[in-house]
Amino acid sequence: MSSSVQDLISQQPDIGSTFGALFIGVTIAAVLFGLSNVQAFIYFQTHKDTGMTFYKLAVIWLWILDALHLALIVHCIYYYLVITYANFEALIEIVWSSKLSVVIEFLIIFSVNLFYAYRIWILSKGTSRIVPITMGIITILHLGVGIVFIWASYQCHVFSDLIKFEWAIYLSLGMITFADVVIASTLCYLLATSRTGFSSLDSLITKLMAYTINTGCLTSVCSIATMITFAVMPTNFVFLAIDFLLAKVYINSYLALLNARHYGEVNPDTNRPYSFYNHHGVYRPELHIQASQHEELRASRRDVFKHPDDEAVKAGASSCVPEDLMTRFSHSSRSQ
Predict the structure, then answer these.
(1) Cα 268 to chain centroid, rounded
(2) Are 109 and 172 in contact (CB under 8 A)?
(3) In 60, 74, 274, 306, which residue has its Cα 20 to 30 A from 9's Cα atom?
(4) Could you give the CA distance from residue 37 to residue 203 in angstroms, rounded to a whole number?
């Protein structure tokens, strides 16, 4: 870096590109927190009859971390813009809430990636041993890099110290991006190998693959944008503002995955059962056949988004999808 943040503040304070950028980042983060609240509410509403399960505890865990992270970054910007107002000497110091928010952010990202890794392990069960082993190695590496980054963060007391530990910033963000790419690629591969020839089910698999790619790209773009802004604009806090959003994007992407079945359900108004009689009361056997095929189609669609908390699929629906595929999707949906 050509100059440090400390030099920028002490020589020519630019509150707009430093703490003004942080303020904008916190504002957007608060909006994303509201979105995660909506998604958590939808999840609990759609599974309110299942009792307390592991996945509900996971949602509660992520929501608590999300709220704590928002509280810490709000305190951070409040400290710089209100408590230490017009005190430029205090602006070069890193407040404690900023350091603690790094720990919470790591817990959020690592937890979400751990849930994705579990989903991959379920999908790959009985098909390949290389995939779960690879995900286990990546998870361990992610944990190690995160611990190193937290240690480096607590070694920084003023913003100019970031120069000494910029390698830790690049290493952490690079590891996050790498994990996102591997997870998205692996999920797409496992979904692609699950095609059966049923047009409706294959269409849903294609939609899930597109969704996986989009969410993986969203988190990757956010982490890459943080790296680029840190490398190109090291004398302002734009990279920190984007980093504030990273944890929120992770949580919203995972909650959207949990609600994938709710979003993917067919509109009930378009799925009215066929009437076996016309308005003259004449029995129409061909309508009976169409209704049977219609119910099989709906059953196959439900199997893709089946949640582990729901009741078991009825025996009549199992005839429309091969047994091995139903087993794989039943297990894969437990990650929801």
Answers:
(1) 28
(2) no
(3) 74
(4) 30
